[in-house]
Amino acid sequence: MSSGLLFACVGALLFAMGMAGVMLIAHLLRRILAFNVMGSGAFLILVGLTQRNDVPDPVPQAMVLTGIVVAVAATALALALVRRLHALTGQLELPADDT
Amino acid sequence: MIWLIVLPLVWASLAFILGPGRGKWLAIGGLALQTVLAFDLATKIGAGGTAVGHLVGGWGAPLGIDLAADGLSAAMLLLTQCIALPLAVYASAYYKRDDAAGSYFWPLAGFLIAGLNALFLSADLFNIYVTLELLGLAAVGLVAAGGGAQQVAAALRYLFATLVGSALYLLGVALIYGAYGTVSISVLTPLVTSEAPRLVWIAGGLMLIGLMLKTALWPFHFWLPPAHGGAPAPVSALLSALVVKASFYLILRLWIGPFAPLIAAAEWLAWLPAALGTLAIFWGSWQAIRAERLKMLIAYSTVAQLGYLFLIFPLLAGAGAIQAGVMQVFAHGLAKAAIFAAAGVLIKATGQDTIAGLAGAVNRVPLTLFTFGLAGMTLMGLPPSSGFLAKWQIIEAALAQGHWPLAVIVLAGGLLAAVYVFRVLRQAFLLAPRNEEATAVSPLLEWPAFVLAAASILLGLRGVELMQLVGIVA
Amino acid sequence: MTANEWLPLAVLASSLLPGLVIFALPEGWIALRTALNLFGAIAKLALVAVLLAGVSAGEEYGVRFAVLPGLDLAFKADALGLLFVSLSAVLWLFTTLYAIGYLEGAPHRSRFFGFFSLCVTATIGIAMAANLFTFFIFYELLTLSTFPLVVHRGTDKAMRGGTIYLAYTLIGGTALLTGIVWLHHLLGHTEFAHAGIAAALGPEYAGQLQIIFLLLIAGVGVKAAIVPLHGWLPQAMVAPAPVSALLHAVAVVKAGAFGIVRIVYEVYGIEFAQSLEVLLPLAVFAAVTIVWGSFRALFQDDLKKRLAFSTVSQVSYIVLGVALFGPLGTIGGLVHLVHQGIMKITLFFCAGNYAETLGIHKVSEMNGAGRRMPLTTLAFSIGALGMMGAPLTAGAISKAWLSDGAAAAGMDWAIWVLWTSSLLNAAYFLPILWRAWFRSAPAAWPEERIAARGRRETAWLLLLPPLVTAAMTLAAAMLAESPGSPLEWAKLIAEREYRQGVTLP
Q1: In angstroms, rounded to a whole number, what is the distance separating the alpha carbons of residues B321 and B326?
Q2: Are the C-beta atoms of C111 and B373 separated by less than 8 Å?
Q3: Is C67 within 8 Å of B464 when comparing Cβ atoms?
Q4: Among C69, C88, C164, C259, which is most buried by a count of CB atoms within 10 Å?
Q5: 3-state secondary structure of C335
Q6: Does residue A99 lie within any of the structural domains?
């Protein structure tokens, strides 16, 4: 197993763990962390899969960089919303579905 | 073409610099210009009969960003600007100067529209990911702008749904790049045709699931009603009319583009979205029939109407299915924008968001009720309206290919829609319980909604040009 | 655009445009609203007169627009369509006059007249549709624009009536749409043509065509109130009197009956329909409706409900005439389309007058009404006698032709149906006349709103329309053989619909 494939496999594992976290964890901060784990998993796969010939490919690097920027922005927005929710309700969990 | 992306970014940034609540004239001016540009692009493509492309900054793939527009994207761009412009006028009257809920409406709406336009113009899968995120984050910001605990909770729920959706999509893109070393849609299509390893199947599945989550297809619809039902009316209108359509557009684009060879290999796959769409129609309509709050009813109606879009997938093998889908996108986009805008007026006029509170509304805001009725016609698929044409096309394509159950579903869905639309109209025609003080409503709120509803009806009388435009698919 | 193209559009616009303007008018602008209404109605009549003259001279009027590739919005003003157009246009004028008088001082008149004009536009669209697609558009438009009129009063009872009306018509519309798309799928178009278009399909499609026929007829049968699809009509009588008069005696139910005529003659073709063996079941349903409607009318004490069940029965005379294979039945059915409209609208006008002037809503309250309101009751009597088919009224003409048609088609049982219905008609109308003319008036009327002043028993705008339509009922019978009468026009249509030369007596 090449190192690239190993990265990809670990990435897949991280993605799956992160996704389970986002769906199952009620605590919002931990959920945001889980989302970041998920994102990192995707980036690992992107970089790992494309390095099978041990020649670095600049395109996925650029993509991952963009992806990180997006993830940071999303995390910031999520944190801001969680803070607002905390300020309004004193809770760090989503209220029960009221539909 | 590039200006369709740059313009909204410019006016959004300027509006942000100007400060909270400002920038509405910039936005309306910018949108007017964009509408002209979108029309221009559509006529160019319609006349030329081929897709057009643009290399941003002259760089070109793989490191640069390619833009491309065919008939399908031009139609979506046109719809976006045509809905956003009246809604901008509406929003300018909706938010009072010191309304906290409207502080950041203009910048966020600008980024949202920039995201939409960029998405429709993008020619590669990764760039689409970026636009999806831009769109999603701006939309979440708009939902949260209401500021109440309920809205923030709805925004968070929406945020997680949209993030998981785009993460799934990104993972799919990563796998595709790993398999083929490219993310350009036009380059990918022949590659997938010649060889499709299992990795691509997984990638396709992940991307489609991610996008369905963002389109709120049943059973991924859970986030939509609180987000669309809880946001301020102009935001609900933008989200329901346009944002969910963007991810549908992507599914369609991928389905008839790079993933077409996969689907040709396993035709039963097409019945999966159709089955989910059917459940969406019945579930969404049922919830709308039971809803007690007006905006919840409309939000659930969106869940149901999105279901129709997915009925076209088994029909894509034959002629006319894409046209039927686009007609439904237009019909629902225009009508839903109108109906949410009308709901905003009704809520302002009656001071409450319950259906029971609408009694006698027809005498207080007749134009808005008329708007509601016209948009309702489109939702029910009654003629003359674009919704009727969409239904006609779906039924006809279904009969032509021998899939008559789809026709039955469409017809049954129309009757269910009639039940929830007339629930509202019926209530509005009731005698008012007592002579309440009618809150005066600005004509700038009533008329844009009416224009949208009238457009959804008039399109039902003249759909030839649009259908020809959509026929030009790259 | 040539005159032959824009004339049909102008006929549509003459009610559509005033309607749209009226919506926007403030409630208080009574003079302008009335002027617009009358201008539209008179302009429509003038345009229809031009069309009638043109068509009898052999001109062809038509126009089409592409809606989707391969799908046209198409209008034509042919002899059959004009029969219905003229009926609607003439009665629209009188109903407008009546409504202006009836609604004097009532709230929400802009809304009322706006939707009223839309309804008329939809009716005209139905009459002039040149294919099933266009027909369907206006058919559903009629449903939608009638709803606000049915629920106009905003009471719970009105809502219930409106909801039932919608439930029936929307489900019927769905059946109709199914049939139309199916047919469009098989044929590639749904243009109306003399002698039909369905015969172009091979014999292997016979089964499908029978199902489509059932769907189409069920769809339009709801509006034509064929038993068992008639339940909405008595419920919809909660609407104000002008609405009941024009819409439920003329526009809506006639739209259904007219749809059946178009489907049988110009989609299937009468001869092809006969070979598909779908006419006999249609005739049986019509016969059942005729008898059942009359029978139910016997037991209604509410005057408008009695008239509504009478409508149920009478509209199926048209259907029966259509289903009788042979030109005589056709002529009887078509002429009854006009005659029934004139007679029934007279009755509804009168019922509205009793309610508005004296507060009489029930048959049991009619005692002595003839002495208090002799002119109204005279008009009512003429309409009622016409319904029974009494000599010298329009009803006699239709019934004679229908009976001859049944005899010519070898369906003697249909003659018995007609006679039974006539007897039942007499049984539910004669007691009313007897009460009105010969019983003495009660000490006080239920609710006297308009006091008598000399010879004028009620507001003249309420009195004039029923008198005119009652006179028309008599004129249609006495001048039946003169050119331009409904009967002569129906003969013209029948000659054009039957492929072989028709010899008329």
Answers
A1: 9
A2: no
A3: yes
A4: C88
A5: helix
A6: no
Q: Do C170 and B418 touch (CB under 8 A)?
A: yes
Q: Is C182 on the interface with B (CB under 8 A)?
A: yes
* Residues of B with Cβ-Cβ distance to A66 under 8 angstroms: 126, 130
Amino acid at B457: I
Give the domain range for residue A65.
Answer: 3-89
Contacts with B, C 31-90, CB within 8 Å: 65-69, 71, 73
The gap from C-alpha C98 to its chain's centroid, in whole angstroms, comes to: 17
Q: Is C144–B468 a contact, with Cβ atoms under 8 angstroms apart?
A: no
Annotate B245-278 with b (16+ C-beta within 10 A) or e (fewer). Answer: bbbbbbbbbbbbbbbebbbeeeeebbeebbebbb
SS3 C133: helix
Tell me if C151 and B411 make a contact (CB, 8 A cut-off): no
- Find which of B378, B392, B401, B470 to mutate to test the C interface (most C CBs within 10 Å of its CB): B392
Q: What are residue B181's phi and psi, to 5 degrees?
A: 70, 20
Domain definitions of chain B by residue range: 266-474
CB contact under 8 A, B384 and C65: no
Q: Quote the CA–CA distance of B297 and B346 in Å, as a whole number.
A: 14
- Determine, yes or no, domain membership for A94: no
Which of C272, C295, C283 is closest to C319 using CA atoms? C283
In a domain, A98, yes or no: no
Contacts of A84 in chain B (CB under 8 A): 144, 147, 152
Gap between the Cα atoms of B121 and B125, Å rounded: 11
Instruction: Choose from B315, B429, B462, B467 for mutation: most chain C CBs within 10 A.
Output: B429
Task: Say yes or no for a CB contact (<8 Å) between B163 and A22.
Answer: yes
Number of domains comprising chain A: 1
pTM: 0.94
Inter-chain residue contact A77 with B137, CB threshold 8 Å: yes
Of A41, A50, A99, the CB nearest to B178: A50
- One digit per residue, the tens of pLDDT, for chain B of length 474 reads 889 999 999 999 999 999 888 888 999 999 999 999 999 999 999 998 888 888 887 777 667 788 999 999 999 999 999 999 999 999 999 988 777 778 889 999 999 999 999 999 998 899 999 999 999 999 999 999 877 888 899 999 999 999 999 999 999 999 999 888 888 898 899 999 888 888 899 999 999 999 999 999 988 999 999 999 989 999 999 999 999 999 999 999 999 989 998 988 888 899 999 999 999 999 999 999 999 999 999 999 999 999 999 999 999 988 889 999 999 999 999 999 999 999 999 998 888 888 888 887 888 888 999 999 999 999 999 988 999 999 999 999 999 999 999 999 999 999 999 999 999 998 888 876 655 566 778 889 999 999 999 999 999 999 999 999 998 886
Query: Inter-chain contact B399–C185, Cβ cutoff 8 Å?
Result: yes
Chain C neighbors of B360, CB-CB under 8 A = 154
ipTM of the modeled complex: 0.94
φ and ψ of B293, to 5 deg: -100, 140
Measured distance CA(B287)–CA(C394) in Å, rounded: 53
Q: What is the DSSP letter of C441?
A: P
Helices (H), C203-358: 206-223, 232-235, 241-243, 252-262, 270-275, 279-297, 303-323, 327-358
Q: What is the CATH classification number for the domain harbouring A79?
A: 1.10.287.3510
3-state secondary structure B54-67: EEHHHCCCCCCCEE
Amino acid found at C468: V
Contacts of B62 in chain A (CB under 8 A): 59
Report chain C residues whose CB lies below 8 A from the CB of B382.
Answer: 140, 143-144, 170, 173
Size of interface A-B (CB pairs under 8 A): 106
Rounded to an integer, what distance in angstroms lies between the CA atom of residue C153 and that of residue C201? Answer: 49
